[in-house]
């Protein structure tokens, strides 16, 4: 029996681990950690590029092989429904399923940076301060943009914006971090509706550490507690953006939110930015 494989993309520090900690209570629906599957499938498609293969159309064979690879990847898992987190380009997603569904996690760029900085300050031995000895917000933001998957993730989200302007063959659900942590049960119920699978009775007051097929995060390489959840009920975190980021930094990075949020979302939710 084939698995239903859905796709998760989005910003770091935007609730990937929180979402998994909740959803993975359901034994029949599991959220993966950042997975190599997207890179594996993309590499497979790239292997058919070049003049050698242009005499014939091999696209159907490519798609058939890619789908079998994705199914084989999760064939030993107990869950019938998998949400795979990765760098999933829309063109690749479309070729993996007849009814592709993508979940996009969003978070304001300054909240993302602030979350990284808060974690780094609480866990001094970490990959950020090892590479940014000055610890200045400006240097940290520049480093994370390049090496912390911040800019790459924002551009991936923007890729979906542009793709959906021209095509409507992928179903997308946007989840903002503030909604995930502030209106959790409603967001999760909407997610089940979006995926078209039976709802599960989640325990939102007893959220445990993220676990996937019996494995937990090993954060020893990047710094302690990067993926640690506060066990129990969700707690919203408020960051003092104005104190953390001087006006010149704020103005320099503000336009990155245009990659993360659609114009409609920006107009509706973020026109309050008058700092």
Question: Would you give an account of this structure?
Answer:
The chain is α/β, with parallel strands linked by helices and 275 residues long. The chain has a single domain (4-269), classed as 3-Layer(aba) Sandwich (Rossmann fold), CATH 3.40.50. The chain is built from 14 helices and 7 strands. The chain has helices spanning 16-23, 37-46, 59-73, 90-96, 109-122, 127-131, 137-147, 150-166, 177-182, 184-195, 241-244, 247-253, 257-260, 263-269, and strands at 4-10, 29-34, 81-85, 101-106, 171-176, 211-212, 215-216. The strands form 2 sheets. Strands 2-3-1-4-5 form a 5-stranded parallel β-sheet. It has a two-stranded antiparallel sheet with strand order 6-7. The relative contact order is 0.18. The mean pLDDT is 87.
CATH level-3 fold name: Rossmann fold
Number of domains: 1
Low-pLDDT residue intervals, each spanning 5 or more residues? none
Give helix % range. 40-55%
Shape: globular
Strand fraction equals 5-15%
At the first level of CATH, what is the class? Alpha Beta
Give the C-alpha Rg: 19 Å
Biggest sheet statistics:
5 strands, parallel
Reading the helices and strands in chain order gives EHEHHEHEHHHHEHHEEHHHH
Average pLDDT for all residues: 87
Number of strands: 7
Strand order within the widest beta sheet: 2-3-1-4-5
- Assembly state of the chains shown: single chain
The number of helices is 14
Termini separation (Å)?
54 Å
Which second-level CATH architecture applies?
3-Layer(aba) Sandwich
Structural class: alpha/beta
């Amino acid at each position: 029996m084939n698995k239903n494989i859905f796709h998760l993309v989005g910003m770091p520090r935007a609730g990937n681990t929180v979402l998994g900690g909740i959803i993975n209570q359901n034994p029949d629906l599991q959220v993966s950690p950042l997975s190599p599957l997207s890179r594996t499938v993309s590499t497979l498609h790239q292997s058919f590029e070049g003049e050698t293969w242009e005499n014939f159309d091999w696209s159907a064979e490519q798609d058939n092989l890619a789908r079998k690879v994705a199914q084989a990847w999760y064939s030993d898992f107990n869950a019938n429904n998998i949400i795979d987190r990765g760098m999933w380009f829309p063109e690749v997603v479309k070729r993996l399923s007849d009814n592709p569904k993508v979940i996009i996690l969003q978070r304001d760029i300054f909240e993302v940076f602030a979350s990284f900085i808060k974690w780094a300050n609480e866990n001094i031995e970490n990959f950020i301060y090892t590479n940014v000895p000055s610890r200045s917000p400006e240097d940290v933001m520049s480093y994370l943009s390049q090496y912390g998957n911040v800019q790459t993730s924002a551009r991936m989200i923007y890729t979906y914006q542009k793709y959906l302007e021209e095509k409507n063959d992928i179903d997308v659900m946007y989840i903002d971090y503030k909604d995930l942590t502030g209106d959790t049960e409603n967001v999760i119920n909407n997610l089940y509706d979006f995926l078209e699978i039976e709802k599960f009775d989640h325990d939102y007051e007893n959220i445990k550490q993220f676990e996937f097929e019996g494995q937990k995060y090993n954060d020893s390489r990047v710094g302690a507690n990067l993926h640690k959840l506060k066990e129990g009920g969700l707690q919203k975190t408020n960051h003092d953006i104005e104190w953390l980021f001087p006006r010149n930094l704020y103005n320099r990075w503000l336009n990155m939110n245009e990659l993360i949020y659609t114009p409609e979302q920006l107009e509706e939710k973020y026109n309050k930015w008058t700092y």
